[in-house]
């Protein structure tokens, strides 16, 4: 049946140029969806290391000497972690906004403006991410 | 083309003379042919040089490939300089290149007015109908390739068989078992219903949408946008009746039917007849859900 004829790099480059809004939205949505899944498992794994804190004395917890608080504090002390948090927010916000766009698409709403709603998702994601930077980076230096 | 007719008669005399040993006259004719070919080549070269130097020409880079000709089995791009005229389409430019420089340049075309659907190509990185694409709207050099995700037969010609199979899989013809009462009464469609299916009837089977679809590229069994649009055209036609609509929906909602669509909108972007393909696919998805979830 129809097997694609390999035109090598020429075809690959051409196809990138061909991509329009809806296609980029799809790629970004895949990407962000899987990044969120990846984060979810990392999140669970890291927090699990803090489980012994459940058995710590009340005094240790009040003083912030338990494993849980120590883990969080040391992680938040790293600039890299702060930057990754900004990235995570960007990824999550885009996935939510574009996800809403896709749900509307499924309901047949706003199909004529599908490219504009994608650009709007991008711009809004950018704005929210920039606005979040002070909160995430505060005290990291 | 008129220039080819004398050549054909020459060839037929040749076959008649084949049984006899090479005569003097034949040798002379062969020599004449060889010289004519030389002259033609020289003229083509001169034309090409002149055009390349000219300001008001368009540069075309055209994909060339022919598995049957030695030296063309390795795909390559040929450059043609075509004199620009106002209103020139990509198809016009290709025809000029073929008629003036290289008569072996192969592509499909017929109506030249976006009706027959034979000349969908990949122009500057997008699926376009060559006869509906103005050169003046394009960046130069204009790169012309055969449709992606289809087997190339020769130059710009791809094998459309798979596309046609998918189109036929949805039974693209009117079927009904609901007839009007009177024997000679017409089977009328009301205006609103005609309006609903209007855009979907415009498909010219060019295959541009299928070629642009990422999902179709990865799943050979996916019906593809054009076939689903065809199914929409009949499923939404009220004259077909309820029973027929059930049958239509069964085809539409099969595993490789509407649910493969990921709303990338590529098909809608490229369709030369401006059919809102994604909209139709989405509507059929909702029809399929409504059909299966019977809460009301
Ligand atoms: C308000 C929040 C969210 C909304 C509105 C949303 C919306 C969506 C929608 C509509 C899809 C289907 C895309 C399609 O039709 O092709 C999707 C896919 C997906 N989402 Fe979400 N989502 C949200 C949150 C999340 C979260 C928190 C995660 C991860 C933990 C996640 C992971 C994924 C993944 C992995 C996919 C599949 C991607 C693929 O197509 O391969 N989403 N999301
Ligand atoms: S739906 Fe549009 S792009 Fe697809 S085959 Fe028909 S006319 Fe061509
Ligand atoms: S030649 Fe008929 S559609 Fe272009």
TrEMBL record, chain A:
It comes from the Archaea. PANTHER family: SUCCINATE DEHYDROGENASE 2 MEMBRANE SUBUNIT SDHC, SUCCINATE DEHYDROGENASE HYDROPHOBIC MEMBRANE ANCHOR SUBUNIT. The chain crosses the membrane at residues 79-97, 118-140. Keywords: Heme, Iron, Membrane, Metal-binding, Transmembrane, Transmembrane helix. It is found in: Membrane. One of its GO terms (biological process) is tricarboxylic acid cycle. InterPro entries: SdhC_prok, SQR/QFR_C/D, Succ_DH_cytb556, SuccDH_FuR_B_TM-su. It comes from Halorubrum coriense DSM 10284. One of its GO terms (cellular component) is membrane. This is Succinate dehydrogenase, cytochrome b556 subunit. GO terms for molecular function: electron transfer activity; metal ion binding. It holds the Pfam family Sdh_cyt. NCBIfam families: succ_dehyd_cytB. Its main location: membrane.
Automatic annotation (TrEMBL), chain B:
It comes from the Archaea. Coiled coil: none annotated. Residues 201-275 form the 4Fe-4S ferredoxin-type domain. Residues 60-164 form the Succinate dehydogenase/fumarate reductase N-terminal domain. Keywords: 2Fe-2S, 4Fe-4S, Iron, Iron-sulfur, Metal-binding, Oxidoreductase. GO terms for molecular function: 2 iron, 2 sulfur cluster binding; 4 iron, 4 sulfur cluster binding; electron transfer activity; metal ion binding; oxidoreductase activity. GO terms for biological process: respiratory electron transport chain; tricarboxylic acid cycle. It holds the Pfam family Fer2_3. SUPFAM superfamilies: 2Fe-2S ferredoxin-like (SSF54292), alpha-helical ferredoxin (SSF46548). Residues 38-53 have a biased composition (Basic and acidic residues). Residues 1-56 are annotated as: Disordered. Its cofactor is [4Fe-4S] cluster; [2Fe-2S] cluster; [3Fe-4S] cluster. InterPro entries: 2Fe-2S_ferredoxin-like_sf, 4Fe4S_Fe-S-bd, Beta-grasp_dom_sf, Helical_ferredxn, SDH/FRD_Iron-Sulfur, Succ_DH/fum_Rdtase_Fe-S, Succ_DH/fum_Rdtase_N. PANTHER family: SUCCINATE DEHYDROGENASE [UBIQUINONE] IRON-SULFUR SUBUNIT, MITOCHONDRIAL (PTHR11921:SF29), SUCCINATE DEHYDROGENASE IRON-SULFUR PROTEIN (PTHR11921). Belongs to the succinate dehydrogenase/fumarate reductase iron-sulfur protein family. This is Succinate dehydrogenase and fumarate reductase iron-sulfur protein. It comes from Halorubrum coriense DSM 10284.
